[in-house]
Amino acid sequence: MQDHKDIDQVIALTMEKRGWIDLPAQGMSMYPFIKKGDICRFIRVEASRLKKGDILLFRAGHGHLIAHRLSRIVMNNQQPHYLCKGDTNVTYDEWISQDQIIGRLIWKNRNGRLIQFTNLASSTWGWAILTLPQLSRLVQFYLVRSKLAKS
C-alpha cells in the first residue's frame, strides 16, 4: 500500500505544479480508443466541469489508478458520485467520489501523433460506446478472438 501513496504524492505534486500529467496507458480496458503504450495527458478539472463521456483518471477503492469513461453523475446527499466504465468492459466500475478523481484526459499521443479528446472521431467513438452497450461486447469479442488467433 505504501507504493501507491508515494505515486499519489508524485502525481499530486506534478498536477499542482504543472496542472497536468502524462502517463503511459496500460491494459486493454479502453481499447481501441486508448491502446497500451499511448501517452495520455490528464489535466486538473473542477467537478462542476465534468460531463458524461469524459475519460477520468481516478484512484479506485482497491488502490489502482484507472482511466475510464464517465457514464453517469448522480447527486447523493448533495455530493456528486460518478459511475465510470472501460470501453471494453461490460460491467461498470464502483461508484467514485470527487476526492478520488485526479484528472480528465485531454489528448493521447500514439506513436508521435497527438490525438485530441475533442476531435470528431474521439467524440463519435465516445457517443457510440455510451449509447450502444453492445459495442463493448463486440470489442471484447474481437480482443478475445485476436488473442486466440495469436496463440
Overall description:
The protein has about 150 residues and is α+β, with helices and mostly antiparallel strands. The protein has a single domain (about 1-145), classed as Umud Fragment, subunit A (Ribbon). Helix content is about 30%, strand content about 35%. It is built from 3 helices and 8 strands. It has helices spanning about 1-20, 120-130, 135-150; strands at about 20-25, 40-45, 55-60, 65-75, 80-85, 95, 100-110, 115. Strands 1, 2, 3, 4, 5, 6, 7 and 8 form an 8-stranded antiparallel beta sheet that branches. The chain is globular, with a radius of gyration of 16 Å. The mean pLDDT is about 90.
Protein topology:
Blueprint: H1 2-18, E1 20-24, E2 39-43, E3 55-59, E4 65-76, E5 79-85, E6 96-97, E7 101-110, E8 113-116, H2 120-131, H3 134-150
Antiparallel strand pairs: 1-2, 2-7, 3-4, 3-7, 4-5, 5-6, 7-8
Put the structure in a nutshell.
It is built from 3 helices and 8 strands.
Tally of separate domains = 1
Structural class based on helices, strands and sheet pairing = alpha+beta
Helicity level, as a percent range? 25-40%
Count every helix, treating DSSP H or I runs of 4 or more residues as helices.
3
Order of helices and strands: HEEEEEEEEHH
Query: Can you give the mean pLDDT?
Result: 92
What oligomeric state best describes the polypeptide chains here?
single chain
CATH arch. level architecture: Ribbon
What's the level 1 CATH class? Mainly Beta
Q: Specify the overall morphology.
A: globular
* The CATH superfamily title: Umud Fragment, subunit A
Query: DSSP strand (E) fraction?
Result: 25-35%
Strand runs, count: 8
Distance from N terminus to C terminus (CA atoms, Å) equals 35 Å
- Here the CATH topology equals Umud Fragment, subunit A
Q: Main beta sheet: strand number and arrangement? A: 8 strands, antiparallel
